[in-house]
Amino acid sequence: QSRVDMVTQIVAVFDVGDRTTPFTSAPVEIRMLDTNGKEVSGVIASPARVTVSADIADLGTERTVPVNPVVTGAPAQGFYTTGVTASPPQVTLVGDPQLIRAIPNVPTIPIDITGARATTTLPAELSKLPDGVSIKGGTASVQVQVTIAEQTLDEKFSVPIQFINLKPGLQFSPTQREATVTLRGTRKQLDDIRTNVAVQANLARFAGPSVATSVALEVQLPPDTKVIVVGLSDPAFAQVTVTAAVTPTPVPTATPRPPPSPTVAPTPAPTLMPTPTP
User: Fold this and answer.
1) What does the alpha-carbon distance between residue 76 and residue 114 come to, in Å, rounded to a whole number?
2) Which residues contact 86 (CB under 8 A, 6 or more apart)?
3) Which pLDDT belongs to residue 262?
4) Which has fewest Cβ within 10 Å: 26, 96, 146, 183?
């Protein structure tokens, strides 16, 4: 009795296969299962085998297929297409089962994107379907979004290194004055940032003289730029020698000499006229 009480369901498993019409199966063995779906042993069923009748109906008069957006042409030079999507992305076909099974998707009328420079959304009519097949709901067109992006490129920039935060009383001598930075962006983005790229070497950690010490280089870009750094000079540091600053010796000032006295021209002797003879 305890074994019988364990049985909660009795199942008969049969294979439908690829049948498309009603049928009756050959006798199949029944199985007695507990609440966990495990077969209960020690119990005998009567009858032990049954036949199963299956009524199969053809429901193939409807079929959902994807919409295939068709795009022709090419974007403007320097731009490329990153994706094409349709809204709605799929439609339901109604009609002859044999016909709709042969339709993998519904294409749109071609959309020309020649010379496009930005993402655009356009209406597109659906292509004509075979006679005997229609679209459920009467959908005749969809919205097609073509995502277009500007091509990016990598460019190398030679940038002077800015040595910053050196403590007073010290001076430095670097092994290099410039760094090569590789940036990635669109042509316009790279041109706009050309004069706003900085490479810095922070000397704040030097408290006194140091010989040939490596200082990491950091690239500084404007906060609102979409340009990214993809490379820096290899190695990405500068060798810096720090020494005490030399105080120049003052040059003594010469005592100025008084200006010379002005030269006085001598007074000429008076000219004596001869006395006339009486």
Assistant:
1) 7
2) 67, 68, 69, 108, 124, 142, 143, 144, 145
3) 62
4) 26
- Are 165 and 240 within 8 A, CB to CB? no
CA distance 10 to 110: 58
**Is the distance from CB of 99 to CB of 133 less than 8 angstroms?**
yes
Place of tokens 């998707």: 105
Nearest Cα residue to 72 out of 24, 126, 109: 109
Helix extents (H) in the chain:
2-6, 97-101, 187-193
Contact indicator for 148, 113 with CB cutoff of 8 Å: yes
Res 59: pLDDT: 57
Q: Which residues contact 187 (CB under 8 A, 6 or more apart)?
A: 78, 150, 153
Q: Mean pLDDT, consecutive 10-residue segments, the chain of 278 residues?
A: 90 81 86 89 89 73 93 92 95 91 94 94 94 90 95 92 92 90 92 92 92 91 92 86 80 68 61 65
88: three-class secondary structure by DSSP: coil
The SS3 assignment for 205 reads coil
Other C-beta atoms lying within 10 Å of the C-beta of residue 240: 22
Rounded Cα distance between 258 and 5, Å, is 136
Strand partners, 231: 182
Residue 109 in 3-state DSSP?
coil
- Encoded tokens for 21: 């019409």
Q: Tell me which residue has tokens 């297409």.
A: 81
Q: How far is the C-alpha of 69 from the C-alpha of 111, rounded, in Å?
A: 8
Two structure tokens written together for 81: 């297409």
Nearest to 143 by CA among 117, 103, 111: 111
Q: Burial level of 215, CB count in 10 A (0-12/13-18/19+)?
A: buried
pLDDT at position 146: 96
Q: How many CB atoms sit inside 10 A of residue 88's CB?
A: 11
